[in-house]
Every structure is written in C-alpha cells, then in structure tokens.
Design a protein that fits this description.
Layout lengths: L9 H16 L8 E5 L6 E5 L12 E5 L16 H10 L5 E5 L5 H5 L20 E2 L1 H5 L9 H11 L4 E4 L3 E6 L2 H23 L9 H13 L2 H14 L1
Helix pairs in contact: 1-6, 1-8, 2-5
Length: 241
C-alpha cells in the first residue's frame, strides 16, 4: 500500500475511482473536470485525484486534502489546480459529501446568456431550486477563469449557497450531493437537462418547465432511487476497467 494512500475506507476510494470513469464515459468530464468525496473517516478531509484526466484515474492517483486544500501528507505529485472548488464547498457546506466540476459544453451557454438553466424534465428536478451563475470577473476582475485559490473557491461556494448546482461563466459548473452517487447523478442530469432545454428553445415555441412544487416532489423521488442509475453505471464502468 502506498504511504500516500488516503485514510478513507477502501470502498469509498474504489467508488471515487469508479465515479471518475462513469463521468468520463458519459461525456460529463473529458480530459478536464474532476470529482471528489469527503472522507468517511474525517469530515475535515476530502479526496481528489492528482492532476490527471478522469478516465485515467486509479486509487494510486488519489490525494487526501484538508479543507484548506493542502495535502495531509507530503506529496510531490502535481495537485489539481482547482482543488479549491472542493475544499471551500466542503468547508461552507457540512451536508455535502461529494462535489463534481465539469466543463460540459451543453451547459456553458446557460452561464453566458440571460437564459437560466431550468428543469425541463423530472430527472433535472433538482434544478428547480435554481442554478445560479458564478461570474468570477464580477468578484475578482480579469482572471484565467480558473478557481485557483481559496478566495475564488469561497466566491463559488457563496454563489452555490444551499443549492445543488452552480454554473460558472465561461467555464462550466459544479454539482454537490449528500453522497457520491447523488453528486454524480446530478452532474449527469445537469448536462442532459441543458441539452434538452437547448433543443426545446430551438423549436421556437413556448417552453413549459417544472414548477417549484413539481420539482421538489420529483427530486425527492429521484434521490430515493439514486442507487438504480449508480449501480448500472458502476457495473458498466467496472466491466471496462
């Protein structure tokens, strides 16, 4: 066992590796983007890959961080540049157990226009609580748009507030969940909802979205059966690994 292996349980580490593969295979992550999980042995820590494409991640590539996004052990490997997305969200949201950051192209227009991302079908019901846009330029002036430090991360976490999703202008989005399967599921269906919403808008007619009550009812059901898609995606990912 590597001396740098995270202290989190083997089952959690294995699921984090699988989550990277799932999101890569479903096109939510490409060479960029990342997914993390809060440690199940110390809530003041989280686990995230080193700087590496999600499709290539193995257990040996994972690094454990404190909530200030510092490795808890000496580690010479190059860390994820945007680890502060994860650390600052975990710090602000004790209820969050997993975070996904994606650059999915279908979502980008909704952070760059006045058209808000809204739930167009029941699988995107969590969007009924809102998908606010974090515009880094408004807070920090001209940057390379990356969340490179704790201040940037705190700005994103403040935009996310108590919600499930925050969009990032010119960049992508972040989803969170009370478990790794929930965060992954939300990332997948944020991307799918964005695609469907774009297609509906392109038809040119009036688009009917889920109202707040419908969204709350549908989201409760989806969260109660999240093991169904997670188990399927996990099975397929493990078969390819």
């Amino acid at each position: 066992m590597s001396e740098n292996r995270p202290d989190s349980s083997a089952a959690l580490i294995d699921d984090l590796v699988v989550a990277n593969r799932i999101l890569a295979e479903l096109g939510v992550l490409d060479a960029f983007g990342h997914v993390s999980v809060r440690s199940d042995r110390d809530p003041r820590r989280y686990v995230l890959t080193r700087l590496l494409a999600p499709e290539m991640v193995t257990a040996a590539d994972l690094i454990e961080y404190d909530l200030d996004s510092r490795p808890v052990r000496d580690d010479a490997r190059k860390p994820c540049l945007e680890r502060f997305i994860h650390g600052e969200i975990y710090k602000a949201r004790p209820d969050v157990m997993a975070v996904v950051h994606s650059h999915a192209p279908s979502v980008i227009p909704f952070a760059a226009s006045s058209v808000r991302l809204r739930p167009i079908y029941h699988m995107g019901a969590f969007l009924g609580a809102g998908a606010p846009v974090f515009d880094i330029r408004q807070r920090f002036g001209a940057t390379d748009l990356l969340v490179r430090n704790p201040d940037h991360g705190r700005g994103l976490a403040a935009t996310l507030a108590g919600g499930a999703v925050a969009l990032m202008r010119g960049h992508g989005f972040a989803t969170v969940g009370e478990s790794l399967p929930v965060a992954v599921c939300r990332a997948v269906y944020t991307e799918l909802n964005a695609r469907l919403q774009g297609e509906a808008i392109a038809l040119g007619g009036e688009v009917t979205y889920l109202d707040r009550e419908e969204a709350e009812l549908a989201d409760a059901v989806i969260r109660s059966v999240v093991a169904k898609p997670w188990d399927l995606w996990k099975k397929r990912a493990l078969e390819r690994m």
